[in-house]
Design goal:
By secondary structure, the protein is of the alpha/beta class. 25% of the residues lie in helices and 16% in strands. Bound molecules: zinc ion.
């Protein structure tokens, strides 16, 4: 297994009526020329279903310069009907993400949990403060 020092949280940047499960994201990422397809390790659908994007042992493709030592977790959504960045997570997504973060924290207790925008400040992704929301799951300094 790789060394994991970061868990990076994303939104898929789609509007409420748009689908973005692993199969859609896989197509988009292949269209960008990423031959391993879906760059996230997990995608959380609006109904709370957690889909596997790629195995944890495989390096992801979701955050420039930080892929090698991280896990990418994405929720379906992130834009409102007008296309503006918003935390659009459903109650089921919030619960599923919390459950996944608890599980990942148990597995990788030294990994920091951060939103994508911490590393790429020009992006709104994931449209909520992940470090703050999961502060109880952050490594003890
Ligand atoms: Zn992102």
């Amino acid at each position: 297994m790789r060394t994991i020092s970061l868990i990076i949280v994303h939104s898929s940047a789609v509007r409420p009526y748009q689908q973005s499960g692993v199969s859609e994201i896989d197509r988009w990422h292949r269209a960008r020329g990423w031959k391993n397809g879906c760059g996230y390790h997990f995608v959380i659908r609006r109904d709370g279903t957690t889909e596997i994007g790629r195995p944890l042992a495989m390096v992801g493709a979701h955050c420039q310069n930080h892929n090698r030592h991280s896990i990418g977790v994405c929720y379906e959504g992130g834009l409102n009907n007008e296309g503006f960045p918003r935390d659009t997570r459903s109650r089921a997504q919030v619960q599923a993400m919390r459950q996944l973060m608890e599980q990942l924290h148990t597995q990788f207790p030294k990994a920091l949990i951060m939103g994508h925008n911490v590393f790429t400040p020009t992006k709104a992704c994931p449209c909520f403060n992940a470090a703050e929301e999961y502060r109880d799951l952050q490594p003890i300094p």
